[in-house]
TrEMBL record:
Entry superkingdom: Bacteria
Annotated source species: Ureibacillus xyleni
Pfam families: HTH_3
Keyword Endoplasmic reticulum: no
Name of the protein in question: Putative transcriptional regulator
Length: 87
């Protein structure tokens, strides 16, 4: 016995959240190179590059260390944006 199922279009809704940061701006204000910041945070220069380009989101511990280097709150370094996107 063949059972046929009708094709139907299904719409999915999902939330798009984005975490942006001000690391590069703050690093320049504090006159730090990527190497110097990496050394202070005990991470690689590549990690700093990835953070600045938004390719990598830091752990909570690293975010805390970054805020301490720049003497500000985590919320002053990282900007969390919520939004809806239909796909």
């Amino acid at each position: 016995m063949d059972v046929k199922y009708p094709l139907r279009k299904v719409n999915f809704t999902f939330e798009v959240n984005e975490l942006r940061n001000r690391i590069k701006d703050l690093r320049l204000v504090y006159d730090l190179t990527q190497d110097e910041l990496a050394e202070k945070l005990e991470v690689s220069r590549q990690t700093i590059i990835s953070l600045e380009k938004g390719r990598y989101n830091p752990s909570l511990i690293l975010a805390y260390k970054i805020s301490r280097v720049f003497m500000c709150r985590i919320e002053d370094v990282f900007i969390f944006e919520e939004g809806n996107e239909n796909g």
